[in-house]
Amino acid sequence: MSRSKDDTAALHDALVQAYGPDFDIDSFTPDLSAAPVEVEQLTDPSELMMTRTVTLQLPWPVMQRLEARAAQAGESIDALVSEWVAVEAAADDTVPRDAILHVLAQRFRRTA
Q1: How far is residue 8 from each of residues 16, 36, 76, measured CA to CA in Å?
Q2: Which end of the chain has fewer CB atoms within 10 angstroms, the N or the C?
């Protein structure tokens, strides 16, 4: 399950616990009289994790390998692809395939 679906399910569960199974989402409105909330400034912008939904268009054999690698690593496909993209995007230049595999091997230890 993707992280966004996990977050949605967790939020829904919290609402059901707080307001019961028959809560009306339309009754939730912002409290315009509430005081503003102070948000602490980030000291390190790299701590801020962003979520972006993308669509992968891959040949079937490639998708099968991706699914197998994610299962082998005990991770979701979303987590594995996010790691690959983060390695590539953080590099000053194009990252060779071997370098990406090395980084992933350090993070996701494969078992025999």
Answers
A1: 12, 25, 17
A2: C
> What's the rounded Cα separation, in Å, for the pair 27 and 14?
16
pTM for the complete prediction?
0.47
DSSP three-state, residue 23: coil
30-88: per-residue pLDDT in tens? 788 988 888 888 788 777 888 888 898 999 999 999 999 899 888 899 988 988 888 87
Nearest to 86 by CA among 69, 107, 61, 63: 107
Contact by Cβ (8 Å): 81, 66:
yes
| Cα 106 from chain centre | 19
Q: Is residue 24 part of a domain?
A: no
In a domain, 69, yes or no: yes
- Residue 14 resides in a domain: no
Q: Residues 18-27: what's their mean pLDDT? A: 83
The pair of structure tokens assigned to 38 is 């102070």
Total number of domains constituting the chain: 1
Q: Containing domain of residue 87, as a range? A: 54-112
